[in-house]
Amino acid sequence: MRSGLSDDDLARIDQHLATTDDLLDTVYPGDSGARQPVHTVYVPADQFTPDFAAQWGAQALAAVEAAGGMEALAAQVGIEPGLIGEVAGRVARKLSTEPIEDLRLDFEDGYGDRGDAEDTDVAMAASKVSDAVASGSAPPFIGIRFKCFEKPMRARGLRTLDLFIGGLLDAGGLPDGLVLTLPKVTTTAQVEAMIIAVEALERVHGLDAGRLRFEVQVETPQLVLGADGRSPLAQLPVVAPGRISGLHYGTYDYSASLGIAAGYQSMEHPAADLAKEIMQLAVAGTGIRLSDGSTNILPVGEGAAEAWALHARLVRRSLERGFYQGWDLHPHQLVTRYLATYAFYRDGYTDAAARLRTYLAQEEGAVMDEPATARALAWFVLRGVQCGAIDADEVAADIGIRVEALTALAHPRLADHALARA
């Protein structure tokens, strides 16, 4: 066969695309396949104790019992009858063994301004987190939300971050699931300032480069649409490659900033959906995870039944829109967080497993799935396994692969390895 492209032509093409290749490698590496928690719980930092998660789990189970049991409550909040038997026992076990997946000790809105007294609470927080990790009572993911980088609070926020990291290291080391939350971000410059801070801390403490990652809260209009008419959200992965672990939508700060009346501030307001769709577009393919916000309508008192149903519906809504994490503000919300989440994965598991099995066996089926769809199916099943909605034994029996191979299939860069090991 005759070839018209010379080695010189191919070299020129490679040179022309070198910047694109570097961008794809550094900014768009795809998801790592590591576990993402289904929620984040915030607690004022001075109220944290090593048994905090167990206390919330016990309160959640007591609320279930008072409501007539898990199956009755599942039916009440709209879980499909055919799924109730599959999820009820799993949720009860989850609340007994790992009620909180991600916990943030809050030194921001939930804590307030306490001046220099915050130093004492930071030291206590670091000590108690270390105790919880050592005893095995800490959630898999745990960390702090410090004050934002706006001028009046910047020094305080940085000092709290500095003291907390130092306190953890003095007490024995950083937890594997350490998470740091930078709130009320308005510009990419604030994210760049955070990088300066964490790089300095890594250098001073002899930590590996990149050890201190952080999540960004999206709760200001300026971060969604900047003064120049562009979205700073899309620049975050570029200015901080590999540093940002997640974007968290802030329901009430964002809504209030737009002038939306308090009674209409909601995770499902059209303004919220627009912001979250831009978040999705901005970080697609970067490996940065997304989290939805919260609802402050709590399942307590006479309105508990309606609040539980609302929360379950909102959790399901977020999941269907590709937001696999959200905020929970009260122990009773743990019940509907897991009921809705487990029902979501159980509802889609049978079809996903069948399609994956057909895809891996390279057989013809009713649906012809491409590699990108197979990866999405694998991610769906893997997320279900990671949160406890699906068992690893089920995956082996129904799909014919180990969870390790499922993880590789879900990661775009490892898909070929997954097929080989299957």
UniProtKB/TrEMBL annotation:
It comes from Microbacterium profundi. Its cofactor is Mg(2+). Keywords: Magnesium, Metal-binding. This is Aldolase. InterPro entries: DUF6986 (IPR054255), Pyrv/PenolPyrv_kinase-like_dom (IPR015813), Pyrv_kinase-like_dom_sf (IPR040442).
